């Protein structure tokens, strides 16, 4: 029985130390296992565990991409290609009709929404820009627009990201049920705008701020969030940041979805032609390695190296590291204590006492009195220093008992 | 061959993680999740003005880590018969 108690107590200590040290760095984690070994008296077994832990920690960091495996650039390109395919599939797979007609007939297509979109109370974010051109506020501005504006081909396609993950995100007002009224899902709206540009747009532009970069940015957001804000600008010249800013600072519906900080992506209309835009997935696959490398270079801010997912060329320990040990008892012991103690940390502030003497006929004629210890801050800092010194000395004394040399 | 081994190890890791998650689901939830300092939160800045809480927490953390490291070293030393 005595041994059982010892084992259980040791196990508890092991769990606490292990949990605590898990929060910091690998070395203490291994140390905790060793500590448990000492307590449990199963030296060889737990030393093996410690070695395994140390090995496991190092392997994931040290195993390099073997020779002959795809380089980072190649993997980046593959990732980009896949995202582009997904995006095209996504656009072409929706229920929206494919837009293949000339630009001048766009208004006719837009008018197909006429019978379904209420003209009043919905298009509430019409924002004229400083250059007296219109800027549609967001996707709640689905055509027809309030003042009869038209979408002309060659206009800039502006994507506002950071729109939040709400599936109703393409209205600025939760009380505007345009999405339910029209049974429009974000995918459909995205398809509308996507086809506007993907199928009738200009050519790829490999400049650093050009079409490829921005489309892939958009692809990333399409694939990662349910919410995205789209705006069409009726302008054949690149839109300045100032114009974009002016269009988003006017907010007729504060505290709603569109109040997330906006960092619009601008896909400018451009006549710059480097390579003809791929029309099909086969054409994307047929691009030369040089073109692929250039595109990969352009999009390397989109496809992060850490975004590879589970790869065959390195051992991935993240599934083990992502387990929520600390939400469960007894692994939560250390974190619970730690969080409770850390929760006491705050920015020091001198106490201020307010004494209400109102109504007192005896003291100072009934006034409020404020006593602030701010003037003693220097003394308080000195006192804190000595308190810390005393704490460290006490810790040293305790250490002599804990650590038996 | 190496690629196959790495895939195999990754598969084992994935399954160990799944099994561990399944086992952890049998454990009770943390009773400390409801622990909060809100009743005293208003006074924490003042307490920190008198007592160096942040410095104490930092020192204590490093101390615990150091002691744990010592025990690891001790067990290794004992294992290699360097100490009794």
Compose a concise summary of this entry:
Chain A is mainly α. Chain A has 14 helices and 7 strands.
Explain what this protein looks like in three dimensions.
- The complex is a heterodimer of chains A (405) and B (84).
- Chain A has 405 residues and is mainly alpha-helical.
- Chain A contains 14 helices and seven strands.
- In chain A, 26% of the residues are buried.
- In chain A, helix 1 (2-22) runs antiparallel to helix 2, helix 2 packs antiparallel against helix 3 (43-62) and helix 4 (72-92) crosses helix 11.
- Chain B has 84 residues and is mainly α.
- Chain B has helices spanning 2-24, 38-41, 44-50, 53-79.
- Chain B starts with a helix and ends in a 5-residue tail after the last helix.
- At the A-B interface, helix 1, helix 2, helix 3, helix 13 and helix 14 of A face helix 1, helix 3 and helix 4 of B.
């Amino acid at each position: 029985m005595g041994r059982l108690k010892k084992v259980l107590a040791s196990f508890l200590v092991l769990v606490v130390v292990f949990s605590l040290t898990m929060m910091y760095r690998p070395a203490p984690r291994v140390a905790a296992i060793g500590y448990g070994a000492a307590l449990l008296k199963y030296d060889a077994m737990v030393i093996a565990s410690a070695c395994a832990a140390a090995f496991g920690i190092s392997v994931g960091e040290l195993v390099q991409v073997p020779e002959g495996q795809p380089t980072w650039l190649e993997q980046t390109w593959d990732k980009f290609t896949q995202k582009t395919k997904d995006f095209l599939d996504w656009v072409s797979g929706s229920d929206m009709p494919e837009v293949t007609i000339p630009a001048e007939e766009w208004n006719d297509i837009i008018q197909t929404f006429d019978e379904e979109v209420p003209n009043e109370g919905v298009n509430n974010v019409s924002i004229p820009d400083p250059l007296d051109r219109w800027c549609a506020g967001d996707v709640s501005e689905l055509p027809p627009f309030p003042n009869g504006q038209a979408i002309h081909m060659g206009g800039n396609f502006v994507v506002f990201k950071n729109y939040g993950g709400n599936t109703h995100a393409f209205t600025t007002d939760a009380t505007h049920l345009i999405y339910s009224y029209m049974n429009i899902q974000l995918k459909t709206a995205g398809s509308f705008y996507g086809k506007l540009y993907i199928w009738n747009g200009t050519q790829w532009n490999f400049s650093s701020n050009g079409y490829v970069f921005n489309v892939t940015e958009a692809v990333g957001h399409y694939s990662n969030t349910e919410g995205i804000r789209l705006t069409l600008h009726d302008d054949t010249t690149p839109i300045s940041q100032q114009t974009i800013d002016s269009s988003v600072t006017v907010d007729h519906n504060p505290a709603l979805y569109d109040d997330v900080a906006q960092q619009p992506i601008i896909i400018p209309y451009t006549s710059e032609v480097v390579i003809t835009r791929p029309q099909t997935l086969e054409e994307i696959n047929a691009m030369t390695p040089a073109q692929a490398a250039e595109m990969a270079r352009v999009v390397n801010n989109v496809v992060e190296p850490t975004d590879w997912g589970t790869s065959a060329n390195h051992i991935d320990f993240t599934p083990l590291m992502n387990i929520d040990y600390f939400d469960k008892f007894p692994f939560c012991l250390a974190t619970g204590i730690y969080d409770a103690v850390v929760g006491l940390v705050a920015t020091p502030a001198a106490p201020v006492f307010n004494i209400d003497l109102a109504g007192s006929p005896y003291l100072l004629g009934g006034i409020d009195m404020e006593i602030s210890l701010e003037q003693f801050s220097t003394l308080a800092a000195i006192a804190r220093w000595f308190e810390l010194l005393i704490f460290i000395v006490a810790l040293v004394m305790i250490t002599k008992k804990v650590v038996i040399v | 061959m190496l690629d196959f081994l790495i895939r195999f190890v990754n598969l084992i890791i994935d399954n160990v993680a799944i099994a561990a998650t399944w086992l952890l689901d049998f454990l009770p939830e943390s009773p400390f999740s409801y622990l909060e300092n809100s009743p005293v939160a208003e006074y924490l800045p003042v307490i920190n003005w008198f007592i160096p809480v942040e410095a104490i927490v930092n020192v204590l953390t490093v101390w615990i880590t150091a002691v744990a490291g010592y025990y690891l070293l001790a067990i290794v030393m004992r294992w290699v018969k360097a100490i009794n």
